[in-house]
């Protein structure tokens, strides 16, 4: 993961939290550990992809090479373009997602559904 969001260590801790709770869950057995791993992947993989994409975009903006934003050319609209770039950078830095507890609850629900303890609502 690129460092432009500063999210690598935090994502690793969230991964460990959700995965650890799933593997320690009373519904998880040796016979269905693959189900717990699938629930983990279903919840955390999309978050990981989101962070990676936004980190890459942020890096492009920091290096002034982001398509559609300031490209270093000298022209009259430079200040407005830099303001747009600033706003987009701030928008990307303010992501929070659902939070790790909400992600854990989603993963637990998927585990419960997969062993037939709830109907998916």
UniProtKB/TrEMBL annotation:
GO molecular function: oxidoreductase activity
Keyword Cell wall biogenesis/degradation belongs to the record: no
GO biological process annotation, one example: secondary metabolite biosynthetic process
Entry-linked InterPro entries: FAD/NAD-bd_sf (IPR036188), FAD_monoxygenase (IPR051104)
Domain of life: Eukaryota
This protein's record includes keyword Flavoprotein: yes
Sorted UniProt keywords: FAD, Flavoprotein, Oxidoreductase
Protein name: FAD-binding domain-containing protein
Source species: Rhizopogon vinicolor AM-OR11-026
């Amino acid at each position: 993961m690129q460092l432009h969001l500063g999210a690598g260590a935090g994502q690793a801790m969230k991964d460990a939290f959700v995965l650890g709770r799933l593997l320690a869950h009373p519904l998880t057995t040796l016979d269905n550990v693959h189900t717990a791993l699938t629930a983990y992947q279903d919840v955390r993989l999309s978050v990981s992809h989101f962070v990676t994409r936004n980190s890459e975009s942020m890096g492009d903006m920091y290096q002034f090479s982001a398509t559609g934003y300031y490209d270093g050319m000298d022209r009259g609209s430079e200040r407005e373009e830099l303001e747009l770039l600033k706003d987009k950078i701030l928008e990307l830095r303010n992501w929070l997602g659902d939070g790790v507890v909400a992600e854990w609850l989603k993963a637990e629900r998927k585990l419960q559904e997969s062993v037939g303890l709830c109907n998916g609502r």
